[in-house]
């Protein structure tokens, strides 16, 4: 359980240093000094960025990549 929380926090911190061509910004409800609680078991982190930009995250010797999608409902 402790290592799982560590990885969630590490993931959040890693998002701050992701290098993309556009500016990646978090959803409004992610604020400074937040603490992820035990529930839910999986943290879902989302935000806004430019369309069709590759975002790469390196965590625990694994690399995760995703392509940003088009704006949904004119948000973003």
UniProtKB/TrEMBL annotation:
Superkingdom classification of source: Eukaryota
UniProt keyword annotations, A-Z: Membrane, Transmembrane, Transmembrane helix
TM regions (residue ranges): 6-24
Name of this protein: Uncharacterized protein
Source organism of the structure: Adineta steineri
Organism phylogeny: Eukaryota, Metazoa, Spiralia, Gnathifera, Rotifera
């Amino acid at each position: 359980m402790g290592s799982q929380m560590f990885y969630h926090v590490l993931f959040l911190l890693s998002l701050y240093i992701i290098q993309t061509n556009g500016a990646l910004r978090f959803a409004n409800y992610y604020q400074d000094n937040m603490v992820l609680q035990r529930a839910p078991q999986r943290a879902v982190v989302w935000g806004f960025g430019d369309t069709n930009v590759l975002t790469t995250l390196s965590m625990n010797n694994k690399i995760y990549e995703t392509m940003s999608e088009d704006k949904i409902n004119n948000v973003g």
